[in-house]
UniProtKB/TrEMBL annotation:
<dbReference type="InterPro" id="IPR012336">
    <property type="entry name" value="Thioredoxin-like_fold"/>
</dbReference>
<dbReference type="InterPro" id="IPR013766">
    <property type="entry name" value="Thioredoxin_domain"/>
</dbReference>
<dbReference type="Pfam" id="PF13098">
    <property type="entry name" value="Thioredoxin_2"/>
</dbReference>
<dbReference type="InterPro" id="IPR017937">
    <property type="entry name" value="Thioredoxin_CS"/>
</dbReference>
<keyword id="KW-0676">Redox-active center</keyword>
<protein>
    <submittedName>
        <fullName>Redoxin domain-containing protein</fullName>
    </submittedName>
</protein>
<feature type="domain" description="Thioredoxin">
    <location>
        <begin position="1"/>
        <end position="144"/>
    </location>
</feature>
<dbReference type="InterPro" id="IPR036249">
    <property type="entry name" value="Thioredoxin-like_sf"/>
</dbReference>
């Protein structure tokens, strides 16, 4: 009986700890406004090699971003949570991860990935750009 309870507890914990927040438009707006620093939002998908490359490059430069008080949020447009989570784990990064709902994807008119959006500390969009960006290009977006 103890083993059964232990197994059930482990399965529940594993399932619960891997649950991702599905962002609706209102949730996204609250998340951006709540973040009191400049925020880079990366819209990405597990099947996109350029997305993964961009995320890895941001993570490689995380110390510099932290010094400038710039946070990074990843929002997957994957239909399957499991695909996003598996790809995220393989990236070995610790940026916050969310899943976009169709409502958010349509609201922001996301048709391709990667997309980088820069939000200021007041939650206003400062810049948005589709396609892979190097870290240097992202820094330029932050300055412009």
């Amino acid at each position: 009986m103890r083993i059964f309870l232990l197994i059930i507890s482990f399965v529940f914990y594993s399932t619960y700890s891997n649950a991702l927040v599905r962002l609706k438009t209102s949730d996204f707006q609250q998340l951006i406004r709540k973040n009191k620093s400049t925020t880079i939002v990366v819209f990405w998908a597990s099947y996109c090699p350029y997305c993964k490359k961009e995320i890895k490059e941001l993570y490689k430069n995380k110390t510099e971003l932290d010094k400038k008080q710039i946070s990074v949020i990843l929002i997957s447009i994957d239909k399957l949570e499991s695909s996003a989570l598996r790809a995220y784990k393989n990236l070995n990064v610790d940026f916050p991860l969310y899943i976009a709902t169709n409502n958010l994807i349509n609201y922001l008119n996301i048709r391709l990935v990667p997309i980088i959006a820069i939000y200021d500390k007041n939650g206003n969009m400062h810049d948005i750009a589709p396609g892979y960006k190097t870290f240097t290009e992202i820094l330029k977006m932050l300055k412009d």
